[in-house]
Amino acid sequence: MNAVKRVAGQLLCLLMISAVPLCSSGIPSSPSVEERTRTVLELMAVGRGLLGRGEYRGAAIEFEKVLQLDPANSSAADYLKQCARGGKVI
Q1: 90 part of a folded domain
Q2: Nearest CA among 8, 4, 9 for reference residue 67
Q3: Residue 89 belongs to some domain of the structure
Q4: Count of domains forming the chain
Q5: pLDDT of 50-81, one tens digit each?
Q6: Residue 29 lies in a domain
Q7: What is the pLDDT of residues 18-51, one digit of tens each?
């Protein structure tokens, strides 16, 4: 179930990224929003890679950075919990 929730969160994030230009009524979206989104995606990828290699402390740091930029990111919160459990998915 966590995998489904994680994928759903990532898809929602991608949908939000693609919807930003549509919501701006023809005005280009702010580079800071695009940069933040790109940074979040990059941090998530690095964190998942570290988690997959069993580097839980490093992964946790990356997911904490994501949560600083995007406190509502439930995928990052779930991965952070997984890091705290030593990589075990519940």
Answers
A1: no
A2: 9
A3: no
A4: 1
A5: 999 999 999 999 999 999 999 999 999 999 99
A6: yes
A7: 444 444 455 555 558 999 999 999 999 999 999 9
